[in-house]
Design a protein that fits this description.
11 strands; single chain; 309 residues; 12 helices
């Protein structure tokens, strides 16, 4: 009876806290909770281990204050489809997807470059190997592309491990919220890596670097064989842009591009004119906001214009 009472008390407490977080904490702008919703509503684990994660097809959700509408291919929908137009496809992670942005840079470009359709194939929590694999295996022959742009972010050498979430990870708002608070405390007291160390440590994995650059070589080969222009666009980490700490890491992908005759552009050239927080979705979420996406779009259109009619 004693243990039953304890179990009942714990269950009631947990349910109360779950209710409290869902109805009083969740305001649609909590980064960790919104990421959990994104994983549940819009993503699936791929049958291909190289791809890892795919978007669902023809699904939508409002996440981090922005409408995420996925089309028949799982691309974030530009709302305007030009089936008879040439295609420019944007590969990348959540920065390309436009996490927290109402109009990601792909959509701005789609509206400006009237003779082309700019496709947003960005998927959150993916690395370059997964993004390129998804393109080569699923979409490379589906449309005729004029330009492929790989949008590279600082963690795209990360060795992403795909695991099925347990029940609490998948469904509990309280568990997600509490876990985030615990991680914040652990980072503060140096029991877990902070964001700078996490990103830098990704570059210590030489095997992942090698695999990523080999996959990039495959993408370059495909583009050359099909007369497609390949551009690598580096999107910088938006914290501390004025004293950027990842120039050495960025040089790895830049030198690879130069050695393999791939155009390389880096939007830090225009973003570092601003204070970081001006460009963030929220103070706790340094993804690019709509202002940052507009700046990136204006920067990219100059490069794209060199390669289109």
């Amino acid at each position: 009876m004693k243990y039953l009472t304890i179990l009942l008390s714990v269950t009631i407490s947990f349910l109360f806290l779950e209710f409290f977080v869902r109805f009083f904490i969740d305001d649609g702008m909590n980064y960790e909770i919104e990421m959990m919703k994104y994983a549940n509503k819009l993503k699936i684990i791929s049958s291909s281990p190289n791809i890892g994660i795919e978007h669902k097809k023809n699904f939508k959700a409002k996440l981090m204050g922005a409408d995420m509408i996925l089309d028949i291919d799982g691309f974030r929908n530009n709302k305007v489809k030009r089936e008879n137009k040439k295609k420019i496809i944007m590969l990348g992670d959540s920065m390309t997807l436009g996490w927290g942005a109402k109009r990601p840079f792909s959509q701005i470009l789609n509206d400006k470059i009237l003779n082309y359709e700019v496709i947003n194939a960005g998927i959150g929590n993916t690395n370059s190997i997964m993004q390129i694999s998804n393109f080569l295996e699923n979409y490379s022959t589906k449309y005729e592309y004029e330009i492929v742009i790989l949008n590279f972010f600082i963690n795209d050498f990360e060795d992403v491990k795909i695991k099925k979430p347990n029940f609490l990870q998948k469904y509990s708002f309280f568990y997600t919220y509490l876990n985030n608070k615990i991680n914040t405390i652990l980072i503060k007291f140096n029991f877990k890596k902070n964001w700078q160390n996490f990103y830098s440590d990704n570059y210590l994995n030489k095997d992942m670097q090698k695999k990523t650059l080999l996959q990039l070589t495959e993408l370059k080969k495909f583009c050359d064989e099909n007369n497609i222009k390949l551009i690598i666009h580096n999107i910088p980490e938006l914290r501390d842009l004025n004293s950027y700490k990842f120039n050495r890491e960025t040089d790895i992908i830049k030198k690879f591009s130069e050695n393999n005759d791939i155009d390389f552009v880096d939007s830090i050239e225009v973003l570092n004119k601003y204070e970081g927080e001006e460009l963030w979705v929220t103070k706790e979420d340094p993804h690019a906001n709509d202002k940052a996406h507009k700046i990136i779009a204006d920067f990219l259109i100059k490069e794209i214009s060199k390669n289109i009619n």
